[in-house]
Design brief:
The chain is mostly beta strands. The chain has one domain (26-151): Immunoglobulin-like. It has no helices and 14 strands. It has strands at 6-13, 16-17, 24-28, 31-37, 41-43, 47-56, 62-71, 75-79, 86-94, 97-107, 112-121, 128-137, 142-152, 161-166. The strands form 3 sheets. A 6-stranded mixed sheet has the order 5-13-12-7-10-9, with no helix packed on it. A hairpin with a 2-residue loop joins strand 9 and strand 10. The relative contact order is 0.30.
Length: 167
């Protein structure tokens, strides 16, 4: 009797896994946020870009908004661009993990601010990179959103695209 055969197809483009990373969204009283990642599956040594957009959903100007991004311990921060709208930004270490923060002055009703950063995957860990973002307004408005990126634990050995047979 012939064993059952399953086909596993993996598509690669220029050495990167083809994925569509859906944005994570959250809304709290007074603020809403959308977080986008450049990939939903990464590999050790690869980079991930995180882009965070926070919007004032109130009818009042929020005098100050602090955005914090709690970086997974299996990521190293490699770039944090500073934008004109940001009054202050910084990076602090919390053990092995890091926290990036941005302080935004005045966010008017309906106005949105965008911040971003790039990290390099240092280890596969448990196969998941959790990135938790919080935003807190001076008016007491808060929100939290978490994104998950999966890390490949094995290396794909064939070219740009291929089919492997698993028996």
């Amino acid at each position: 009797m012939k064993p059952a055969t399953r086909r596993l197809t993996v598509a690669l483009l220029l050495g990167s896994l083809l994925t569509i990373a859906a944005p994570a969204r959250a809304a709290g009283p007074g603020l809403s946020a959308e977080v986008r990642t450049s990939v939903s599956v990464a590999r050790v040594g690869g980079t991930i870009r995180y882009a965070v957009a926070v919007e004032n959903t109130t009818a009042q100007t929020i005098q100050s908004v602090t955005i914090r991004d709690f970086v997974d311990e299996n990521l190293d921060v490699v770039a944090v661009p500073i934008l004109d709208r940001v009054a202050a930004a910084g990076l602090s270490s919390l053990g092995r993990a890091e926290e990036i923060f941005w302080i935004v002055k005045k966010l008017r009703p309906g106005e949105r601010v965008r911040v971003s950063w790039k990290g390099r995957v240092t280890e596969a860990g448990d196969g998941r990179l959790e990135n938790r973002i919080t935003a807190e307004g001076s008016d007491g408005s808060t929100l939290e959103v978490t994104t998950v990126t999966y890390v490949l634990r094995t290396r794909c050995l064939f070219g740009r695209s291929g089919t492997a047979t698993v028996t």
